Amino acid sequence: MAREDVDMKIGIIGAGLIGGTLTRRWTKLGHEVFIANSRGPETLRELEKETGAKAVTAKEAARAGEVVVVTITQKAIPDLPKDLFAGVPKDVVVIDTGNYYPVRDGNIAALEKGQIESEWVAEHLGRPVIKAFNNIYFQSLLDKGVPKGTAGRIALPIAGEPDAKAKVLKLVEELGFDAIDAGSLADSWRQQPGTPVYTHDFDASGVKKALAEADRASLPKYRDAANTWLKNFLASQG
Question: What's the rounded Cα separation, in Å, for the pair 68 and 57?
């Protein structure tokens, strides 16, 4: 992939499927990645050895560089240190990849009442966030990036404030996906679980069409459908 930024320092909080995938992709591209999870750096030694990323604490990841990715379950957000971003420069971009599934996260009252998921996350973090990487399966993120201009190139929606979003758009392009400006964080409901754009590997025109087709009044229906899918999937895994 064409490089947009060289040797960027990126902190990642959460070493699950998306966090691990971004660690693998970004280290291969030459970025310096600092990875943290809830269990401590000593549990990340294998990923550290595999990728060259540095295993750190969540507070260290939040202070690692110019981009910080928060990629944990919604229910874990309130458990993050209250001072996680205390003293972190305002120009550090924070990416939220999270999704709310009641079957996994329990019922979160504010979200059940209609608050936008990433606005809720931003409130808890005390920082503005960019919504990105939440609507793609980790395997597609790992394997399906292709050079710009390739027919059918997968596109990803990115929502948030313009200045911070610009850096994320470049990172998405570098990973091999078309980056689609999906508006402000207030618009990020259009890419929440169950919406037309969610977990579909659409190209740029398909993503724009799906975002436009999303219906705010249908958010409870979208959530129920996504939640039922996850419930059935978890049951199938025993």
Answer: 13
